[in-house]
Amino acid sequence: MIELRTPAEIEQMKPAGRFVAQTLATLKAETTVGTNLLDIDARAHELIREAGAESCYIDYHPSFGASPFGKVICTSVNDAVLHGLPHDYDLRDGDLVSLDFAVSVDGWVSDSAVSFVVGEPDPADLALIDVTERALAAAIEVAQPGGRLGDISAAIGAVAREAGLTINTDFGGHGVGRTMHGDPHVPNDGRPKRGFPLRPGLVIAIEPWFLQSTDKLVRDDDGWTLRSADGSRGSHSEHTVAITADGPVVLTDRSGLD
Ligand code: MG
């Protein structure tokens, strides 16, 4: 069921969005060559405790998960792109890191992801990150009242195809509200002018993610981490966006924080 939020409820969702944005900006700034993935998780846990927020991940146990996630942030490195379970690994020069973070504050969820390189970047990695960021920006631009969900999907797909990438639509965006994953599903490709009408009050996570040379994923033995089937690297950009009568409001905007 797709739920629409009142303007007052969207106001109530803003603290969660601000906290997620601030936390990702902080973690990105503090993550460098030599940082251990478990230390990123511990730092995120500390920030959650300080803020009185609630992790959406730690007890998360969907049908595809082998056991509850047990950590508060997804850390996906290089050919890992989604659901990366933090483990004992020190980041190396040139690693491409994707952080995906969702919490609840005062009962409202926000969800956001960012990819970046630590140390000396490979230009191909920066180009891939740029494609996911541009796809997210293009999707937000068409997240307007009067549009359709397919406009968002089509905008993402167009940017990916223009960059010569293939698209996996198994995992994509989703409704966000009292819980992390609600209706509707927001595929990363689709046809414009189709699908659910974009009405004021719809709050969705939009999350393009792409791999350099495949659309196939394989799962690690940890039961969570999804990596490319061919070893090529991945990037993931996500914001929680509220559609309002005045246009899209990016609840997890990091402008001025990064
Ligand atoms: Mg997310």
Automatic annotation (TrEMBL):
InterPro entries: Creatinase/aminopeptidase-like, Pept_M24, Pept_M24_MAP, Pept_M24A_MAP1. It comes from the Bacteria. Its EC number is 3.4.11.18. Residues 11-245 form the Peptidase M24 domain. A divalent metal cation 2 binds at residues 111, 174, 207, 238. The keyword Nucleus does not apply. Keywords: Aminopeptidase, Hydrolase, Metal-binding, Protease. Residues 226-258 are annotated as: Disordered. Pfam families: Peptidase_M24 (PF00557). A divalent metal cation 1 binds at residues 100, 111, 238. Binds 2 divalent metal cations per subunit. Has a high-affinity and a low affinity metal-binding site. The true nature of the physiological cofactor is under debate. The enzyme is active with cobalt, zinc, manganese or divalent iron ions. Most likely, methionine aminopeptidases function as mononuclear Fe(2+)-metalloproteases under physiological conditions, and the catalytically relevant metal-binding site has been assigned to the histidine-containing high-affinity site. Substrate binds at residues 83, 181. It catalyses: Release of N-terminal amino acids, preferentially methionine, from peptides and arylamides. GO terms for cellular component: cytosol. GO terms for molecular function: initiator methionyl aminopeptidase activity; metal ion binding; metalloaminopeptidase activity. Belongs to the peptidase M24A family. Methionine aminopeptidase type 1 subfamily. Monomer. PANTHER family: METHIONINE AMINOPEPTIDASE (PTHR43330). Removes the N-terminal methionine from nascent proteins. The N-terminal methionine is often cleaved when the second residue in the primary sequence is small and uncharged (Met-Ala-, Cys, Gly, Pro, Ser, Thr, or Val). Requires deformylation of the N(alpha)-formylated initiator methionine before it can be hydrolyzed. This is Methionine aminopeptidase. It comes from Candidatus Avipropionibacterium avicola.
